[in-house]
Amino acid sequence: MALLHNRVSNEELKKRLMEETFPRTTISFYCYFPIGNPQEFRDYLYKNLHALQAFGRIYVAKEGINAQMSVPTDRFEDFRNFLYSIEPLNGLRLNIAVDDDGKSFWVLKIKVREKIVADGIEDPGFSMERKGKYVNAVQMNELLQDPDTIVIDMRNHYEYEVGHFENALEIPSDTFREQLPMAVDMMKGNEEKNIIMYCTGGIRCEKASAYMLHKGFQNVFHLEGGIINYARQAQAAELESKFIGKNFVFDDRLGERITDHVIASCHQCGKPCDDHTNCKNDGCHLLFIQCKDCAETMDGCCSTACKETIHMPVERQKEIRRGVEHGQNIFNKSQARLRPRISPPVK
After folding, report:
1. C-beta separation of 289 from 159 below 8 A
2. Which of 153, 242, 295, 314 has its CA 20 to 30 A from that of 165?
3. Catalytic residue at 205?
4. Which one is catalytic: 31, 199, 279, 291?
5. What is the sign of the dihedral through the CA atoms of 326, 249, 252 and 254?
6. What digits encode the pLDDT tens for the residues 260-283?
7. Cα angle 156, 159, 162; round to 5
8. pTM (two decimals)
9. Residues 10-66 pLDDT 10s
10. Is 84 helix (H, G, I), strand (E, B) or coil?
């Protein structure tokens, strides 16, 4: 029987990835459909995708599948054929990364979850069967010219910060489950206006559109395939991109450039910058924006405390990590809790 979990260390897997001589393609996809036995489906996926040398992160739940993956480019057709052999996934749109070096993932992880995107919805009357209308890049640009159109970004702050559609509203929370009721409250009184919802690849805005309809809104749209698909369609049709800046992605790249606009700032010195990084202190790994100058000065760390820590003996670092229990080094991407943690560069 084939192993259904990885047994090799991350360090070794990363080394093997960097030594690969063939190109890889980064892909994302999702589909809402009923899965009777998520664990059985998960094991079936693992056996077949592992055989294709596919890497990535997949969530499986009774409501469907959500995946971000890297596959050898010369096995892309085999990968697609396998997915399409699963009836609910036949013909599924696969979002191919815009700005990709093929080094996005180095291991295959498939997890069974309660939901493929945590939404906090407990209303038994809610259903994904009724959702907003899809819009493509052309339709998106046209609707954006209509003064009765409201555009809502259903992503987190750290995603919105580095790139978003022109005049898009940010829902000020870093959890999707909090954003859904907040979006409803923010849109009260606009039940008859065009409301377009968007996200990275489409999974969050599709559910959000269904939730808005469930709450009585009438003209709800969502961007098909999210920002990733929009960028490809706009480029192919030579349309002006109404999305400006960088699209945050949840893999090792941490972002793919859509336009040349840099709309964010280094969290340490304030210079224009939209490069996310994780603090190099293994007891922190805070996600923040850091320019190259500050990265050099701070040794890739978010604070002077973390910079001092990474230069301590390894055993001392381990002792410090063992003593951290939800203290200042807790991993948190939220702007409200992030900014006080960031130390300016040591001059």
Report:
1. no
2. 295
3. no
4. 199
5. negative
6. 999 999 999 999 999 999 999 988
7. 145
8. 0.75
9. 777 667 767 777 888 989 899 999 999 999 999 999 999 999 999 999 999 999 999
10. helix
